[in-house]
Amino acid sequence: MSAPEPDHPSLGDLAPDELERLARAHVDGLLNEIRTAEVVVRTEYHPLGIARRHPVATAAVAGAAGLLLARWLRGNSRRAAAGPSAPAPGGGGLLASTVARSLLSGLAESAGRTLPDLLFAWLARASAPR
Q1: Residue-range definition of the domain harbouring residue 27
Q2: Mean of the pLDDT values across residues 119-129?
Q3: What backbone phi and psi angles, to 5 degrees, belong to 62?
Q4: Which of 1, 18, 54, 109 is geometrically suited to a Cys-Cys bond with 70, CB 3.0 to 4.6 A?
């Protein structure tokens, strides 16, 4: 163990109000560091900032998400059509379900194809000088 430095008294020798002031100073310094880190994280990792810095990767991720959503919806519609189901009292339950799933699947595929183009157009407009 090393001996305490002569210009720094030990904590046991400090008055209670001096201990409180010292503790508050340390806590305030820690909170200021946390706030600074929060600002840095908010600016560096904001979704729009990431999309502006990496537009190709953003478009690829958006397109892949659209394709996965379309595949998932299409798989669910095929399972619903192939599975046994009791006819609805109105007679069109299975047909309505299949049409709705097909519509959602088509919308997801369209979004997967057009989302990258929309993203590039938006990024070009957002980064254009005003």
Answers
A1: 15-44
A2: 77
A3: -65, -40
A4: 109
